[in-house]
Design brief:
mainly alpha; Serine incorporator; membrane; TDE1/TMS; transmembrane; transmembrane helix
Length: about 400
């Protein structure tokens, strides 16, 4: 009774009350429910997310293992002259090949599931089931990439720069949308006084963490007055934090203090990641990567970074609602729980993103074992992402006022 749709359960109860129900009729009603059809077909869209996330994690680890420990594979590729460059070029190319296999798998899933809206659609079963066939398909795509000429792989590497940027933009929009949604849930006129204490506590904690993080970055990454670039990065982050707070508290905006505090945490974290991505050996970067020895801190940082990539891709993939133009539509019982096409598209661009992190956004720079997202290109990508995040956030604050002013001017 609980597992079937409301209308089916009502029909069954009505039949039982009239004394006309039979076991065959009850089974037919139960069999007609969409939940039973999903169970019968072995499809579960909620559990399918975790399987795709596991495939993505395995692909990321495979690319890392091939880069750091695939000496035999690199030797064979050098014999076949697949990469006309140094060993660093070969290590970067093997990452791109694994990434291309993962991208081909998820872009195929995107093309075959885009537009799925109902649970009784055959594409829902394809998305949530057929795991043996899809695993074989992923392995096949990955194997085929090692047979492709180097020219195609290098072309994919150039395209992956753009795809990784698309992933960062999608992730940025998702994070800002979540912060704005959290702020809307804590508006005074909606939850009165009980929520205000938690809002002030959360906002105060966010600002304290931001200031502590900025102070620590000054201590760790500006040991000398000559570290002008790091001083500029950190100081400009502090200026952006003040700018977001001022705009949010402006009487015409009145967006509160919570959202700039949470956005401050995000931009401070990006600034820290950007400085950490600077090449080792610099006078302003005193960290474990400056030596040839791989210690436990480097390994832990690498593991955390890989898990962060997978979690960010997973959480962004199921947040297709933040890209819908009409968000007031009510979801029917037989609608899919999330956008399948968007989910696979995010994972496809995420495959390009993890490739760029593992090669430092550059196919010809030296790559040290157990490192990820290291290099000046990685640093500037992070910094630009930070500035773009602030611009998008400020636009989301002031755009309603601008549109309202235009509508008032046109009506007058």
């Amino acid at each position: 009774m609980v597992l079937c749709h409301k209308e089916h359960c009502w029909v069954e109860v009505e039949a039982m009350e009239s004394g006309e129900s039979s076991s065959n009729e009850r089974y037919a009603v139960f069999k007609d429910s969409s939940w039973f059809r999903q169970f019968r077909n072995g499809s579960n869209p909620w559990m399918a997310r975790y399987v795709y996330g596991l495939i993505f994690l395995v692909a990321t680890l495979l690319a890392w293992a091939a880069r750091d420990y695939g000496r035999n594979a690199l030797t064979e590729m050098e014999k076949l002259e697949r990469c006309k460059g140094t060993k660093d070029c070969l290590r970067a190319e093997v990452v791109l090949r694994v990434s291309l296999g993962c991208f081909a798998f998820f872009i195929t899933m995107f093309l075959s599931t885009a537009g799925t809206s109902k649970l009784d659609d055959s594409r829902d079963s394809w998305h949530s089931g057929w795991w043996f066939a899809k695993i074989v398909m992923w392995i096949g795509f990955t194997a085929i990439t090692f047979l492709l000429p180097s020219v195609i792989i290098q072309l994919y590497g150039e395209i992956a720069h753009f795809g990784a940027g698309v992933f960062l933009l999608i992730q940025l929009t998702s994070i800002i949308s979540f912060i704005m949604w959290l702020n809307d849930c804590c508006q005074p006129d909606k939850n009165a006084e009980r929520c205000q204490v938690y809002v002030m506590l959360l906002a105060t904690t966010a600002y304290v963490v931001c200031l502590v993080g900025i102070i620590l970055m000054y201590i760790w990454y500006t040991p000398e007055p000559s570290c002008l670039l790091n001083i500029f990065f950190i100081t400009w982050t502090l200026v952006l934090l003040q700018l977001m707070t001022s705009v949010s508290l402006h009487p015409k905006v009145n967006a509160g203090i919570l959202t700039p505090g949470l956005m401050g945490l995000y931009v401070v974290f990006i600034c820290w990641c950007a400085i950490r991505s600077e090449p080792a050996g610099e006078n302003c970067i005193r960290k474990a990567e400056a030596t040839d020895r791989t210690d436990w801190l480097t390994i832990i940082s690498f593991v955390v970074a890989v898990l962060a990539i997978v979690i960010a891709t997973f959480s962004t993939g199921i947040d297709s609602q933040c890209f819908q133009f009409r968000k007031d539509e009510t979801q029917a019982e037989d609608d899919v729980p999330y956008g399948y096409g968007f989910f696979h598209f995010v994972f496809a661009t995420g495959a390009m993103y993890f490739a760029m992190l593992l090669i430092g956004w550059n196919t010809h720079h030296a790559i040290k074992k157990w490192t990820i997202d290291v290099g000046w290109t990685s640093t500037w990508v992070r910094i630009v992402n930070e500035w773009l995040a602030v611009c998008v956030y400020l636009w989301m604050l002031v755009s309603p006022i601008i549109w309202k002013s235009r509508q008032t001017a046109e009506s007058s």
